[in-house]
């Protein structure tokens, strides 16, 4: 039997790539909490260098002289554990591959890289027998990947629903609680430092899509890439959509959803999608406010589980990074890398057309006899069943004529049937506009 080395007897060389929002907090904790970490890891975690772009930039951590370097290559070549917190695709990817080739365990928070090139990195890590872990890449501080990978590995996950982007949750929450318009809520998010100066990756859903690909891969034991994720951001959600949803008892959230589905032939596959979604206010995810994240997991035996916490920020995210570092150190001390993911299932990725969900469709219609019947007929012809229909009359048509807004919530229907329904309804001359089509979960 292998006896773990005592902290004093063993030291591991830890290289940190990046000293920004997250990296600076990881460095601080490695330095300030060294004794505790050594006790938990079974070895001292010696920070041997911190790679950055500029040696002169101000840092949120005071580092001992000589630790900062611009030579990331040299650092990676001589470390037991490499922590990549630079972000971006290159040079992060090449540095990770080099670290793996040198036999170092790698910890990263880089969801963009993992969603794009994860399969290549996992294969290289498996081939080299080293551990590649990335708890921080999805939902910041929330321990979600390890529970899915390890704690639920004896169960069968059927669905994962997540609020995994803090910026968009903050924006939608502001619009819901204050009636703010999208642009004002976005500005507030930027002011508070949640959104980037260029917030495209957040508001267009790309950041959430990268996280959805990672969640789906681990939950369904199959590698899913960014291109397997159907993605819609929140830029078209209006204050009117939010207010109308509120009147009906719903809240709008940007959800990342990965679920087991059957296609038209009855074959199983996985649908992975990100889009604004109506949730009843009673759903646990509806209570996730501000920039917080939460992931709701449904498994055959465990039932429903929810994980909640801070999805971003230097110190919270550093907590997840250090959990991975300690885990990598323990495995190094005890021997054996442990598996970072399994890909034994190989179920196909199904497109958004195979998704079955409920929908809320807002229509502006001419207020005259027979209109409802014609609309209902199209829904029926496409096999889309209506759950509720609400009509609001307005005196705002041309020449003071009345128009009506119809809000129709459907039972679960196949996306392709709903799309055909909306297309055909939009062609009716009594329809003046299809103002919104939003998916509804949790009813
Ligand atoms: P920052 O932009 O704050 O920091 C990036 C750091 O990497 C900087 O220190 C920068 O150096 C360094 N760096 C960038 N490019 C290079 C390069 N080519 N060579 C050497 N050093 C380089 O990023 P964050 O800390 O916010 O994010 C880091 C990673 O963590 C990203 O992958 C991000 O997606 C992920 N993440 C971030 C979260 C957050 O809340 N911020 C939450 C969850 C994950 P310099 O300082 O000199 O410019
Ligand atoms: N931009 C991301 C967010 C940061 O708003 O959640 C964490 O990945």
TrEMBL record:
Pfam families: ACT, Homoserine_dh, NAD_binding_3. L-homoserine binds at residue 196. Pathway: Amino-acid biosynthesis; L-methionine biosynthesis via de novo pathway; L-homoserine from L-aspartate: step 3/3; Amino-acid biosynthesis; L-threonine biosynthesis; L-threonine from L-aspartate: step 3/5. SUPFAM superfamilies: ACT-like (SSF55021), Glyceraldehyde-3-phosphate dehydrogenase-like, C-terminal domain (SSF55347), NAD(P)-binding Rossmann-fold domains (SSF51735). NADP(+) binds at residues 17-24. It is an enzyme of class 1 (oxidoreductase). NADPH binds at residue 111. Residues 360-442 form the ACT domain. One of its GO terms (molecular function) is homoserine dehydrogenase activity. GO terms for biological process: methionine biosynthetic process; threonine biosynthetic process. It catalyses: L-homoserine + NADP(+) = L-aspartate 4-semialdehyde + NADPH + H(+); L-homoserine + NAD(+) = L-aspartate 4-semialdehyde + NADH + H(+). The active site is at residue 211. Its cofactor is a metal cation. Keywords: Amino-acid biosynthesis, Methionine biosynthesis, NADP, Oxidoreductase, Sodium, Threonine biosynthesis. Its EC number is 1.1.1.3. Belongs to the homoserine dehydrogenase family. Catalyzes the conversion of L-aspartate-beta-semialdehyde (L-Asa) to L-homoserine (L-Hse), the third step in the biosynthesis of threonine and methionine from aspartate. This is Homoserine dehydrogenase. The lineage of its organism: Bacteria, Bacillati, Actinomycetota, Actinomycetes, Micrococcales.
């Amino acid at each position: 039997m292998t006896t773990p080395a005592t902290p004093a007897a063993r030291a591991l060389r830890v290289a940190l790539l990046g000293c920004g929002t997250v990296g600076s907090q990881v460095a601080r904790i490695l330095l300030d909490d060294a004794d505790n970490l050594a006790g938990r890891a079974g070895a001292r975690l010696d920070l041997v260098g911190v790679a950055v772009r500029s040696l002169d930039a101000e840092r949120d951590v005071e580092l001992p002289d000589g630790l900062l370097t611009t030579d990331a290559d040299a650092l990676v070549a001589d470390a037991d554990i490499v922590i990549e917190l630079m972000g971006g695709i290159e040079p992060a990817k090449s540095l990770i591959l080099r670290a793996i080739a040198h036999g170092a365990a790698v910890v990263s928070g880089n969801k963009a890289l993992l969603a794009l090139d994860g399969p290549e990195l996992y294969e290289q890590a498996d081939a080299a027998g080293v551990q590649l872990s990335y708890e921080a890449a999805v939902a910041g501080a929330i321990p979600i990947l390890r529970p899915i990978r390890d704690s639920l590995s004896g169960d069968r996950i059927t669905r994962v629903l997540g609020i995994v982007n803090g910026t968009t949750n903050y924006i939608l929450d502001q619009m819901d609680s204050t009636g703010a318009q999208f642009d004002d809520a976005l500005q507030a998010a930027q002011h508070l430092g949640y959104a980037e100066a260029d917030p495209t990756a957040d508001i267009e859903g790309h950041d959430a899509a990268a996280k959805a690909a990672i969640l789906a891969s681990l939950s369904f034991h199959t590698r899913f890439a960014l291109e397997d994720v159907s993605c819609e951001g929140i830029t078209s959600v209006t204050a009117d959509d939010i207010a109308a949803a509120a009147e009906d008892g719903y809240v709008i959230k940007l959800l990342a959803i990965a679920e087991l589905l059957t296609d038209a032939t009855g074959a199983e596959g996985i649908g992975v999608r990100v889009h604004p979604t109506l949730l009843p206010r009673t759903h646990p995810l509806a209570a996730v406010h501000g920039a917080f994240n939460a992931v709701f997991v449904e498994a055959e035996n465990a039932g429903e589980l929810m994980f909640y916490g801070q999805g971003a920020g230097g110190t919270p995210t550093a907590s997840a990074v250090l959990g991975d570092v300690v885990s990598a150190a323990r495995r190094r001390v005890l021997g054996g890398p442990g598996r970072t993911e399994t890909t034994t299932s190989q179920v196909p990725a199904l497109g958004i057309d195979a998704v079955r969900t409920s929908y809320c469709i807002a229509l502006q219609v001419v207020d005259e006899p027979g209109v409802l019947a014609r609309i209902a007929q199209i829904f029926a012809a496409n096999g889309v069943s209506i759950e509720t229909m609400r009509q609001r009359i307005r005196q705002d048509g041309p020449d003071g004529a009345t128009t009506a807004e119809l809000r129709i919530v459907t039972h679960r229907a196949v996306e392709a049937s709903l799309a055909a329904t909306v297309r055909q309804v939009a062609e009716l001359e009594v329809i003046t506009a299809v103002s919104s089509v939003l998916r509804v979960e949790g009813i």
